[in-house]
Design a protein that fits this description.
With 103 residues, the protein is mainly alpha-helical. It has a domain of 41 residues. Helix content is 80%, strand content 4%. The chain has 4 helices and 2 strands; from the N terminus they run H-H-E-E-H-H.
Length: 103
């Protein structure tokens, strides 16, 4: 992307954000339902990024050992295990599944 293209893109994003803030500010400020919905947006974006990084390689969907690690991580997170422990156990499960010959 050229510097001019990047500058135009950034200006457009800033303009859209400002327009949305001014146009929807009054609606969002007094509506608890909309506020709760907007608070869930970062979580859904992170979940989408994790899904794409876990289940795709380049342009293909891949089902390999990472699925087992993600399943274990989801279960441990649901049980409110500390995040560091979740990461270590999920990595170990993924490594063991790969060592067993899957993925």
């Amino acid at each position: 992307m050229t510097p001019l293209g990047l500058a135009l893109f950034l200006a457009g994003v800033a303009a859209l954000r400002l327009t949305g803030g001014f146009a929807l500010g009054g609606v969002i400020a007094g509506n608890d339902r909309v506020t709760r919905l907007l608070l869930l947006m970062p979580l859904s974006i992170v979940a989408a990024v994790i899904s794409v990084q876990t289940f795709t390689t380049k342009a293909h969907i891949v089902l390999d050992a990472r699925i087992a690690g993600m399943a274990v991580a989801a279960g441990l997170a649901w049980r409110k295990v500390p995040m560091g422990v979740v990461v270590v156990i999920a990595a170990c499960v993924t490594a063991l599944v790969r060592a067993a010959g899957w993925g």
